[in-house]
Amino acid sequence: MPTSVEEYDKMSEEERKAKDKADRERENAQQDALPYSWTQLLGELDVHVPVPKGTRGKDLTVVIQKKKLSVGLKGATDKILEGELCKEIKEDDSTWTLADNVILIHLEKLNQQQWWENVLTHHPKIDTTKIEPTDSKLSDLDGETRGMVEKMMFDNQQKQMGKPTSDELKKMEALKKFQAAHPELDFSNAKIS
User: Fold this and answer.
1) 3-class SS of residue 89
2) Strand pairing partners for 40?
3) CA–CA gap between residue 108 and residue 95 (Å, rounded)
4) pTM of the predicted model, to two decimals?
5) Mind telling me which residue stretches traverse the membrane in this protein (predicted)?
6) Would you say 110 and 13 are in contact if contact means Cβ atoms under 8 Å apart?
7) Percentage of residues in the chain having pLDDT higher than 70
């Protein structure tokens, strides 16, 4: 029976560790029983599906749709996997390849800020609150996001040193330009916030 947040909060540190370990072992056993393995980053997900030795691409039927995934061998009555995806994907940016008797299915998530609990909705879920994301590099981010992160980092450094943030520097620069354009005004007693 799942433990509520309140019950978990009341546990001792040792009880939490034991529960987390048991949950991880149960989760790993459930995932190992699937006919595929999978990994994810915030923006993408990779599914590895083993196939019989000697299988070629033309022997496969792989269907990747916005909310559906299906993998099977041509002529076989049962699919290796088939069902509704946990969340929507970018169909045009998702692909599959076959190498070393494994189909690699690369899915680009539509919502790139959300962890998936499972690949197919009818398969066992993982606890996404326990995911520890890998460190990312600024160079991995798109231009707009990178700019925002760099600004936040700069502002944080400035605050730690007791210096003005980028927004405060912009205001000070605008005030200097205004003062230079209007020397007739006296700003000596002005309180600027």
Assistant:
1) strand
2) 45
3) 9
4) 0.62
5) none
6) no
7) 89
CB count within 10 Å of CB 87 equals 19
Whole-Å CA distances, 127 to 74, 102, 187:
35, 26, 59
Query: So what's the pLDDT on residue 93?
Result: 94
What is the rounded distance in angstroms from the CA atom of residue 80 to the CA atom of residue 82?
7
Q: What is the dihedral of CA 129, 18, 26, 110, to 10 degrees?
A: 10
Torsion of CA 8, 13, 16, 21, to 10 degrees: 170
Domains of the chain: 34-121 (2.60.40.790), 143-181 (no CATH)
Fill in the DSSP letter of residue 138: G
pLDDT, one tens digit per residue, over 72-85 is 999 888 999 999 99
